[in-house]
Specification:
By secondary structure, the chain is of the alpha/beta class. 33% of the residues lie in helices and 32% in strands. It contains ten helices and eleven strands. Helix 1 runs parallel beside helix 3.
């Protein structure tokens, strides 16, 4: 027998009020979260709680996720991280390391298969997990406790120690931000992340809506791009990319500079900078540059 579930995470502002959830059916699901966390924390913790709550079950487990970062972390990258003392190839600490260690322990001896599904594309289990994760994040935004769900009976209290004692988010420049609403810096980070999603990259109109009319880019290869060229040629990423924020600096009242590291599922990371300007109340990317990381 195979137990089939979906796991998802949500963060309002990323970081901000965050939620996680897994869903089997209307009688078997769970959710939770934090007043301040990241989307990746939610995605990972949803899988962790599912593994912990099903630890006493002999069935195989099939988990649907719309996060390639989560799937790759568990199935591809984790052995190398462990060999290097939970460090990445560049020697830097692994993000969300306490959750990663708990996932590693929870995977031992388990028969688990992960399958990527496109988010917000009508997949029944994924949509249900997404709604529950969003509801948990909204509950924390409103100063309330989310509905935790029935879970797998009494196994919740037995196997959820790491979840109820969830690690704090990695320290970053957002740690002192008022969580009641996304800051302008958080908004810009969220917009930058959206430019890495298939949903936006597959829609030329959505891409154009995020780029300033005078936009240009100097790419990692050294090629110079115009807005018209980018809108015409952009498409879904063949190699999913994770975004690591390095700095967000306000260089003028309506101008923010975002410096970040793009970490592909395969291949080498790049250092990137994006200049965002606010026009008529909307943040638009004015300039982007990518550089191979030494």
């Amino acid at each position: 027998m195979t137990l089939v579930a979906a796991a998802d995470g949500s963060a309002l502002g990323n970081p901000g009020p965050a939620g996680w959830a897994w869903y089997v059916d209307d009688h078997c699901w769970a959710s939770g979260g934090w007043p301040h966390g990241t989307n990746n924390m939610g995605e990972l913790t949803a899988v962790l709680d599912l593994l912990q709550q099903t630890a006493g079950h002999d069935d195989d487990l099939l988990v649907y996720c719309d996060s390639r970062y989560t799937i790759n972390s568990i199935t591809k990258w984790m052995p190398g991280w462990k060999r290097r003392g939970w460090k990445k190839g560049d020697g830097k600490p692994v993000a969300n390391v306490e959750i990663m260690k708990a996932l590693d322990a929870a995977m031992q001896g388990r028969r688990v298969r992960f399958e990527w599904v496109k988010g917000h594309a009508g997949h029944e289990l994924n949509e249900a997990a997404d709604r529950l994760a969003n509801a948990a994040a909204l509950a924390y935004q409103n100063g309330e406790q989310p509905a935790h769900g029935p879970g797998f009976g009494d196994t919740r209290s037995e196997h959820a120690f790491e979840v109820t004692r969830a690690p704090e988010p990695d320290a970053d420049l957002f740690s002192l931000v008022d969580e009641s609403a996304p800051s302008e810096e958080e908004q810009v980070v969220a917009l930058e992340r959206s430019l890495l999603t298939d949903e936006v990259r597959g829609d030329p109109a959505a891409v154009a809506a995020l780029l300033d009319p005078a936009w240009e880019e100097i790419g990692r290869s050294g090629r110079r791009w115009t807005r018209e060229e980018m809108v015409a040629e952009i498409g879904p990423l063949a190699d999913p990319v994770d975004l690591e924020v390095l700095a967000v600096e306000r260089v003028a009242g309506d101008v923010l500079l975002l410096v970040w590291r793009s970490v592909p599922a395969t291949g080498e990371p790049s250092l990137r900078s994006s200049l965002w300007v606010r026009r008529d109340g909307r943040w638009l990317q004015r300039f982007h540059q990518g550089t191979p990381e030494a």
